[in-house]
Write a structure and sequence with these properties.
Elements (H helix, E strand, L loop, with lengths): L2 E6 L16 E4 L2 E4 L2 E4 L6 H10 L5 E3 L3 H8 L4 E6 L7 H9 L8 E5 L5 H15 L4 H14 L2 E4 L4 H5 L5 H9 L2 E7 L5 E8 L1 H21 L7 E5 L3 H14 L6 E5 L2 H7 L4 E4 L1
Helix pairs in contact: 2-3, 4-5, 8-9
């Protein structure tokens, strides 16, 4: 009997990078509907095509969470499983996973983590669970430390385009037009309960990156003073690898306690949230 990690498709980590430890990662996909056509986010979606389709759509594309049966199938068996889902405030994926517990078969124990995050944040939690498994911790120890990790983690993201926020009704067209004209780049974050809030604003991408690095520096310093020195950090990028590499370089330069940084491309659901040129950080 071993362990397995189950994630929904908003998690950008598709494997565990720990040498000598074979930890299966099972993806339970959400779906995206654009102009009446539905696409399964099973890893085969071309994100450049998806961006173009979202951009040309006159209505906001919608997503649908996995079914409880899909989760139950992934959970079933004799291996113990840790499930990491998209924030319950953003999707029904967590509730579907909890319902799947009642349908699973086999003797394996299962714990479902509400990531209270998305994209890089969800990936960072899955990677942390994988690391805890690689260290030989017990099921109960991993559950306890995983909950603590989620409580302490922050998620930040920078949007290059405000189109998705405008179409979703989270920003008026007038406000969005003014922000676009002034080249304002909102720096968003989790609100501590799995929702999304505006954290800061910057004019232009360069200033937004510099502000984000300063935010992370303050976060790292706060954790160091609390006796919890540097944790790993994960960056997801939507079609902008050069920007992700630049951000990584600046974090390593200005945040001495952060040494382990993973860069991941966004999958379908993360592309839906981050949009073209978006950067998401889980720390």
């Amino acid at each position: 009997m071993g362990f397995k990690i189950i994630v929904d498709s908003c998690c950008d980590a598709k494997s565990m990078p720990y040498p000598g430890v074979d930890i299966p990662v099972i993806n339970v996909p959400l779906s995206i509907t654009i102009d009446g056509s539905t696409y399964i986010d099973d890893g085969s979606l071309n994100t450049v095509w998806l961006l173009n389709a979202m951009r040309s759509s006159k209505v906001l594309p919608v997503t649908a969470c996995p079914s409880p049966a899909a989760y139950a199938e992934a959970m079933s068996g004799d291996d113990d499983a840790f499930v990491v889902t998209l924030s319950a405030e953003l999707s029904g994926s967590y509730q579907a996973a909890m319902a799947g517990l009642e349908l699973k078969k086999g003797s394996g124990r299962v714990h479902v983590f509400n990531s209270e995050s998305a994209c890089a944040g969800e990936a960072r939690i899955a990677l942390e669970i994988g690391w805890l498994i690689s260290q030989g911790l017990s099921f109960d120890e991993i559950v306890a430390q995983g909950k603590e990790y989620i409580r302490d983690m922050k998620t930040f993201f920078i949007l290059q385009s405000l189109d998705s926020l405008i179409k979703a009704g989270r920003m008026s067209k007038i406000t969005g037009s003014i922000a676009t004209f002034m080249q304002l780049r909102p720096i968003m974050s989790d609100d501590g309960t799995g929702g999304i809030m505006l954290y800061e604003k910057a004019r232009g991408t360069k200033n937004a990156i510099n502000k984000l690095v300063e935010i992370l520096r303050r976060q790292e310093e706060k954790m160091r003073l609390a006796g919890r020195p540097g944790k790993p950090l994960t960056i997801s990028h939507c079609n902008c690898p050069e920007l992700a590499i630049e951000l990584k370089s600046k974090i390593l330069e200005h945040c001495p306690g952060i040494e382990d940084i993973t860069i991941l491309p966004t999958g379908g659901l993360s592309t839906f949230y981050a949009f073209d040129g978006g950067i998401v950080v889980g720390y």
